[in-house]
Design brief:
- By secondary structure, the protein is an alpha/beta fold.
- Helices cover 44% and strands 20% of the residues.
- It is built from twelve helices and ten strands.
- Strands 1, 2, 3, 4, 5, 6, 7, 8, 9 and 10 form a ten-stranded mixed β-sheet that branches.
- Helix 1 links the parallel strand 1 and strand 2.
- Helix 9 runs antiparallel to helix 10 and helix 9 crosses helix 12.
- It starts with 5 loop residues before the first strand and ends with a helix.
- 36% of the residues are buried.
């Protein structure tokens, strides 16, 4: 029986000094039946030329040049151009271990999984390697998996944490606003989970995440309004049956964002409006707040109490400096 084709999708934007290292890790996969889809997202630093040079080196490589549309659009284009039964997403400044694809295919062959996740190592500029252990391992249904991730990590994983069945993806899965540049991959996974039945979580290290000072993760400081927008989008995406699993995490995040805005702006109007939304949305989750969070929630309708807490928060921030 022919080995299934795996599509490795790589969005590329202005990483000319890192792209070669990433691509080398892909062409050297011990599992050979792969296609490598490289999407040049309108790079201006010569990254596109680096990608074009690889077409002549390996027939499994396909390069597509697009107008800059952001990482989600680039991933979407990669999915459109792919033909594999399975797919895996890799950032152009990171790498896969040589046996990554082979390992995932072996696990998929053992069970009727929709998604197989793994572990990763963080590699710093000075050569240090920090292993990121997985929260749990084994086979899980969707509700069990979501509840476990939110309980242990307070969030869902990113798109680069494993291999997926390609049929899970569609146009709607990539319908994430371009201005969402942090957390967009978690929103993409949120939509995919709606279509999954069974996943396998492994502690196999398959991904090397290179921590660069000039990466988007370091460049972008997220305002509290951004966090609230992420929550709104996620609540719009997830199935109704899964929403109760997210409620406690979303309540805590909304509460933190609410106070962060009031501390920053010195105003009370925004906080009061958000509190009204929280009361309607998360009424059944108040018992899951910590004592400090409960105090902040209880005080929200009382402007003098909110002002005192915000002054204390400002003082705490000064102590940190």
């Amino acid at each position: 029986m022919r080995a299934p084709l795996v599509s490795i999708i790589v969005p590329v934007y202005n990483v000319v000094q890192y792209a070669d290292k990433c691509i080398v890790s892909l062409v050297r996969q011990t599992y050979r039946n792969i296609e490598i889809i490289l999407i040049d997202d309108g790079s201006t630093d010569g990254s596109g030329l680096v990608l074009d040079a690889w077409i002549r080196k390996d027939s499994r490589i396909k390069v597509f040049h697009t107008v800059n549309g952001g990482v989600t659009a680039a991933r979407k284009e990669g999915w459109r151009q792919s033909t594999g039964e399975y797919c895996i997403f890799v950032d152009a400044d990171d790498s896969l271990t040589p046996d990554a694809v082979a390992y995932f295919i072996a696990v998929f062959a053992e069970g009727d999984y929709d998604f197989v996740s793994g572990a990763y190592d963080i590699v710093y500029n000075d050569g240090r390697v920090v292993h990121k252990p997985v929260p749990f391992t084994g086979m899980f249904g969707m509700a069990e998996y979501i509840a476990g991730m939110l309980r242990v990590c307070r969030c869902l994983p990113s798109i680069g944490i494993g291999m997926f069945r390609s049929v899970l993806f569609d146009e709607e899965a990539f319908a994430i606003p371009r201005e969402i540049v942090r957390g967009e991959d978690t929103l993409l996974v949120t939509g995919l989970l709606n279509k999954m039945n069974k996943i396998y979580c492994s502690d196999k290290v398959f991904y090397l995440y290179y921590q660069r000072d000039d990466s988007v993760t370091h460049q972008v400081t997220l305002p509290p309004e951004y966090m609230l927008e992420i929550i709104k989008i996620q609540r719009r995406i997830i199935k109704e049956e899964y929403k109760p699993l997210f409620n406690a995490v979303h309540l805590k995040s909304s509460l933190n964002a609410c106070y962060a805005m009031m501390e920053r702006d010195g105003g009370y109007t925004k906080g009061r409006a958000i509190f009204g939304e929280m009361r309607k949305e998360y009424a059944d989750c108040l018992g899951k707040l910590s004592p400090a969070e409960s105090l902040k929630y209880i005080c929200l309708p009382v402007e003098p109490a909110v002002g005192l807490i915000c002054r204390l928060m400002k003082l705490k921030h000064k102590w940190r400096k």
